Amino acid sequence: MIRLKNVEKSYAYKGGRTWVLRRIDAEIRQGEFVTIMGPSGAGKSTLLGILGLLDGAFDGEYWFVDEPVHALKQKHRNELHKAYIGFVFQQYHLIDDLTVYENLEIPLSYRDVKRSERQAQVADILDRFNIVGKKDLFPNQLSGGQQQQVAVARAVISEPKVILADEPTGSLHSSQGQLIMEMLKELNEQGTTIVQVTHDDKVAAYGGRLIQLADGWMVDE
């Protein structure tokens, strides 16, 4: 499903170049649950952004569902992202002037889901995440943990083929975090491919395979 060959990411500056990722070769099969770990600055979030088709400015080859991402225009990358990927951002990325309900509805509108079906799916996800009472609130009226719950709910609501999660339990209490991870585990058992970035060994243990990064290099798997 995902194949990286000699993927690199760098930024030019006056007099030189800063490397964020170096010579990344990796393959992730459909239905895997992969954890990416490493110290701060190792390139974990950058790699996740490339995998999620959010960053097309890289060198090397990236194949996603047999599509050559490295050769695609941004419009095509966006279409693939909407069709296949649910993304949990570390900083939530909820839309401030939309309610919780409206934020959850957005991924479904991308896929032209009928209004009645959208209403049913949003109602179901609100119940599953125990946030029914928050549906009419705006993101700035929520705690960090509540925003994280909404962000995860938004990523899974359209049942994507791939879920990419950047610190999915970072702002959650242990019980909330366990609930989220059990839900991701259940989705994985149903066939969803999951790639997560985490610093938490307990969260990492939910994955079936570990990729370690250090200074932009893949040092262990």
Question: What does this entry look like structurally?
Answer:
This protein is of the alpha/beta class. It has a single domain (2-220), classed as 3-Layer(aba) Sandwich (Rossmann fold). The protein contains seven helices and ten strands. The strands form two sheets. The protein has a six-stranded mixed β-sheet, with helices on both faces. It has a four-stranded antiparallel β-sheet with strand order 2-1-4-5, covered by helices on one side. A hairpin with a 2-residue loop joins strand 4 (59-64) and strand 5. Helix 3 (100-110) packs across helix 4 (115-128) and helix 3 packs parallel to helix 5 (144-156). The mean pLDDT is 93.
Mean pLDDT: 93
The low-confidence runs, each spanning 5 or more residues with pLDDT under 50, are: none
Using only C-alpha atoms, the radius of gyration works out to 17 Å
CATH homologous superfamily heading: P-loop containing nucleotide triphosphate hydrolases
Strands, total number: 10
How many structural domains in the coordinates? 1
* CATH first level: Alpha Beta
Q: Please trace the helix and strand order, writing H or E for each element.
A: EEEHEEHEHHHEHEHEE
Gross geometry: globular
Straight-line N-to-C gap: 18 Å
Number of helices: 7
Q: Look up the CATH topology.
A: Rossmann fold
Largest sheet: 6 strands, mixed
Structural class: alpha/beta
CATH architecture name: 3-Layer(aba) Sandwich
DSSP helix fraction = 25-40%
What is the spatial order of strands in the main beta sheet? Answer: 6-7-8-3-9-10
Report strand %. 25-35%
Please specify the SSE layout and strand pairing.
Blueprint: E1 2-13, E2 16-28, E3 33-37, H1 44-51, E4 59-64, E5 67-68, H2 74-84, E6 85-88, H3 100-110, H4 115-128, H5 144-156, E7 162-166, H6 174-189, E8 193-197, H7 201-204, E9 209-214, E10 217-220
Parallel strand pairs: 3-8, 3-9, 6-7, 7-8
Antiparallel strand pairs: 1-2, 1-4, 4-5, 9-10
